[in-house]
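Memo to structure team: turn this sequence into structure tokens by end of day. - J.P.
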Amino acid sequence: MTKAIATKQEKAEKPLPKGWKQCKLGNVCDIVARQVDPKLPQYGALPHVNGENIEGGTCRLLYLRTAAEEGMTSGKYLFESGNVLYSKLRPYLRKAIYVDFRGVCSADMYPLTVNSEVLDPHFLTWLLISDEFTSYADAQSRRARMPKLNREQLFDWDVLLPPLSEQQQIVTILNQQMAAVEQARAATLTQLAAAKALPAAYLRQVFDSPEAQTWKRKKLGDIALVSGGIQKTPNRSPHSFHRPYLTVRNVQRGWLDLSVIERFEITDLELERCRLECGDLLIVEGNGSIDQIGRNAIYRGELGECIHQNHLIRVRLDQTKENPDFLSLYLNSELGKIQMIQKAMTTTGLHTLSVSKVQQLAIPVVSLEKQNRIISHIKEKLTVATSLAKSLEDQLDEIAQLPTAILRQAFNGEL
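Reply from structure team:
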């Protein structure tokens, strides 16, 4: 395929191929911005498009609602079927779309109409998210405090246009390849969702099995020491006697996030009372999301002498009889989570655990030998599931890079 877009150096050094046209973008397209009032029924019922509706770098519409559904009351711009919508705000996001319906758009969108004798609107759409135009638009728009490409900057871009038939050929190939990318993305997302569902399924196979129904239950307070932590106050700023402390942010479901660690000023007595030991289980007492109630992880001595905040509840087991990994797996299972959510319910509608509520949790009790066998079995499966999910996430990252690579090939004549 003949090269559709050339570098600035190539433009200067090479004559234009036969049938090509070099011009300002403003010579082959125009902005059709007729302002309308979305409070009027005939406009409020129309589809509304803004930058959030468009997926960056793919020319794909993510969702669509009417102006009335969006609660729009201020002036909007009318666009017609066959227009190209380009998001002038933050051009580096690469948001443009061809529309085959009538609607209204936000003031941050340019509704563009083309001279159909020399420019295909679908070709323009892909062109507006190409590397060359995006680099130009990004450099121009950054002159403003909020990156935004104005009308003059848009129309002043020098564009090389191949013949209309070649533009349409490029569009056909791009559409086919982008459709293949979307198919691959959708398939990988389905596989990733299945992989992420595996850990819950593995835990359910153990803790909701017929055998598990026969296990004895004991209140957690009868087999463990359950205690609260230290409240964070302004006078806790470290100055003379301080230690690292863990917060809700550090405790994820089944693992500790130690990327950010703060320090508390404490007393000798507080350190003695709240010092964490290897094997202590930390449970989140409350969270904005119900499904995060009771999130827990085990402290394994990673920070040495360490304490915890009052929004975490510490559970200390006799490890000659109970393995904290078994308790953590159970509490992170569906049965454990349901029980903690039920305990966390309050008359005010809030959801929060407390030391006394955690003490009342009914915990399955089996021999330490059986606990260790179950832990080994589940962790082996969880390792495989985690590796599979990570591989699929990497695959998704690679797929996400394909549209930009395909566009680069298209406008370098490499398809």
